[in-house]
Amino acid sequence: QVQLVESGGGSVQAGGSLRLSCVASGYIPSKYSMGWFRQPPGKEREGVATIDMDGTITYADSVKGRFTISKDKANNTLYLQMNSLKPEDTGLYYCSATSLYYSDYLSRPDVGYRGQGTQVTVS
Q: What sign for the dihedral angle of Cα 7, 8, 12, 18?
């Protein structure tokens, strides 16, 4: 079992920045992929950014150039730096982790372990 705990969400004005963190604990495989996903109000879950177990980073088109995903493997922590936030970035953000390889991980918001999420509101 892997436990994921997100933090760093909040309310910001458009154009502002937030940095999300996700700490993983429990049984952590030696190789695993992690990612950030979000669920906007009234919409389905969608991928934001992922880091595959081989280090490949993928971003959703809507966040390219504004968001940066990174991982501190020594501390089992995943980050998401979000700049130039827009109202359409509003949603519940959660991190995911999986020991299985998916070439389209960004399109799979329901695989692997998930945290409870942290709310981001942009006005």
A: negative
